[in-house]
């Protein structure tokens, strides 16, 4: 059960709530507390909320940043009790109930803010499984900056191939390797294939972009392992129809500037010339999880997630709630409950955390958090997707239409929903992409 006090001793000020993180979990917690009688502070390293499920479309020129990002201050501009701070968390003082911050703008020094309730939704980052040196050679698409960098690399690869007279080197530029066949990897591979075969096919003179290779490397024996095997098979067929080659039961063992080396189960290895590698394989929790775990004496799992109580509170600190990809929730019997690292989980936990605070303000308590699994969706390409809705399993156009509706519904801001709908409609009928821009020179290659 969740218990707590509504105000600190003396009741000299409104209940102070600090939310760390403007992602799905933190944003849900903050928006559902914005109307409550609290003094709310939202802290994030960026001044915007990124709709991360569509970041791969930024990386392939299908959408522009302003269409999938929304300023945090704009979300709360009509809520005078809400303050937004552009800052990075440097540390926690759980005993003093203080948060130490490093401002993200200006030249002021570190500052501390006090709280009565702290909600930490630090999210996660991609794991390179002990090979952090691969990060520059195989970037991910989890953040706005990295998605735009990947877009520059993909488009620059075609430009470099156009000017490369040596055929083997040209083939290396036209080979794209996506590591990891989860939803992000599958979506990324499908988008690159469509970009090469539809959007760019008439743009070049010395090369035919349709001759490019898109390889999807996966350790497991099928793509989309979180989906039923029947949908995995349909997704694999759709990928192959687009021109993507799934390399299953393969492990990446080396990456350099010119190639990727993969290893098969029998121990044999193959070096594949490829100048563009994109990482979408596995995640690890935000570093904030380790800091909280160390201070509270809470255990961490192999993915760096901190163990929290069934009500999402930090062990020994009921005033601190942690949620999203950075936590592992204990069940009523103490055993960990395995929850997928998906946006719906973080959103439900964010709403639950807001309910906890509201209940405490009324001197009440609520039951433990329970995740309601509404299904899983993954898009593969134009009019190609798979949907596991438990009672119903869809693939093809119907699944793709369901994917469109769900993602438009959860986008932040009516203007963004309208712009993305228009952009998708134009792309569907013209097969074009309006954001094929190369900014700064891609780093590392």
Draw up the topology in text.
Elements: E1 15-20, H1 24-33, E2 38-44, E3 48-50, H2 55-59, H3 65-68, E4 69-71, H4 72-75, E5 82-93, E6 98-103, E7 111-114, E8 117-120, E9 124-126, H5 144-162, H6 167-173, E10 175-179, H7 183-199, E11 213-218, H8 229-242, E12 244-248, E13 251-255, E14 259-263, E15 269-273, E16 276-279, E17 283-285, H9 287-296, E18 306-308, E19 313-314, E20 317-322, E21 327-330, E22 336-337, H10 343-361, E23 376-381, E24 384-388, E25 393-395, H11 397-410, H12 414-430
Parallel strand pairs: 1-2, 1-8, 2-5, 8-20, 10-11, 10-16, 11-12, 18-21
Antiparallel strand pairs: 3-4, 5-6, 6-7, 9-17, 13-14, 14-15, 19-20, 21-22, 23-24, 24-25
Proportion of beta-strand residues: 25-35%
CATH topology of the largest domain: FAD/NAD(P)-binding domain
Shape call: globular
Category by helix and strand content: alpha/beta
CATH architecture title of the largest domain: 3-Layer(bba) Sandwich
Give the mean pLDDT: 92
Low-confidence stretches: 1-10
Straight-line distance between termini: 53 Å
Using the coordinates above, name the CATH class of the largest domain.
Answer: Alpha Beta
Radius of gyration based on Cα positions: 23 Å
CATH superfamily of the largest domain: FAD/NAD(P)-binding domain
What helical percentage do the residues reach? 25-40%
- Helix tally? 12
Strand order of the largest sheet: 7-6-5-2-1-8-20-19
**How does the major sheet shape up?**
8 strands, mixed
């Amino acid at each position: 059960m969740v218990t707590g006090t509504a105000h600190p001793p003396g009741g000299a000020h409104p209940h102070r709530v600090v939310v760390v993180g403007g992602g799905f979990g933190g944003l849900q917690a903050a928006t559902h507390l914005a109307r409550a009688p609290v003094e709310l502070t939202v802290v994030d390293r960026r001044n915007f909320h990124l709709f991360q499920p569509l970041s791969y479309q930024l990386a392939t020129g299908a959408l522009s940043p302003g269409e999938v990002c929304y300023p945090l201050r704009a979300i709360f501009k009509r809520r005078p009790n809400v303050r937004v701070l552009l800052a990075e968390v440097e540390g926690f003082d759980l005993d003093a109930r203080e948060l130490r911050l490093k401002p993200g703008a200006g030249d002021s020094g570190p500052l501390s803010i006090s709280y009565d309730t702290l909600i930490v939704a630090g999210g996660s980052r991609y794991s390179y499984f002990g090979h952090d040196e691969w990060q520059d050679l195989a970037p991910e698409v989890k953040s706005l900056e990295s998605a735009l960098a990947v877009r520059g690399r993909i488009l620059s690869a075609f430009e470099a191939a156009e000017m490369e007279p040596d055929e083997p080197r040209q083939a290396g530029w036209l080979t794209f390797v996506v590591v990891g066949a989860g939803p992000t990897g599958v979506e990324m591979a499908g988008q690159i294939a469509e970009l090469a075969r539809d959007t760019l096919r008439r743009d070049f003179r010395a090369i035919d972009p349709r001759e490019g290779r898109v390889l999807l490397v996966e350790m497991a024996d099928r793509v989309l392992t979180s989906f039923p095997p029947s949908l995995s098979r349909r997704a694999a067929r759709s990928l192959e129809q687009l021109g993507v080659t799934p390399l299953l039961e393969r492990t990446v063992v080396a990456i350099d500037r010119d190639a990727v080396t993969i290893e098969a189960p029998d121990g044999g290895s193959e070096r594949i010339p490829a100048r563009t590698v994109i990482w979408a394989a596995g995640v690890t929790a935000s570093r904030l999880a380790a800091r909280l775990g160390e201070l509270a004496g809470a255990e961490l799992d192999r993915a760096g997630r901190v163990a929290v109580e069934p009500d999402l509170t930090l062990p020994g600190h009921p005033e601190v709630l942690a949620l999203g990809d950075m936590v592992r929730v204990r069940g009523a019997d103490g055993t960990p409950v395995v929850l997928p690292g998906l946006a719906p989980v973080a959103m439900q936990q964010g709403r639950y955390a807001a309910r906890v605070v509201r209940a405490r303000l009324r001197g009440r308590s609520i039951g433990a958090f329970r995740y309601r699994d509404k299904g899983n969706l993954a898009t593969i390409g134009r009019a190609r997707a798979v949907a596991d809705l438990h009672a119903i399993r869809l693939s093809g156009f119907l699944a793709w239409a369901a994917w469109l509706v769900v993602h438009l519904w959860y986008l932040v801001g009516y203007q963004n929903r309208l712009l993305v709908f228009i952009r998708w409609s134009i792309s569907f009928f013209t097969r074009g992409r309006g954001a094929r821009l190369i900014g700064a020179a891609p780093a590392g290659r």
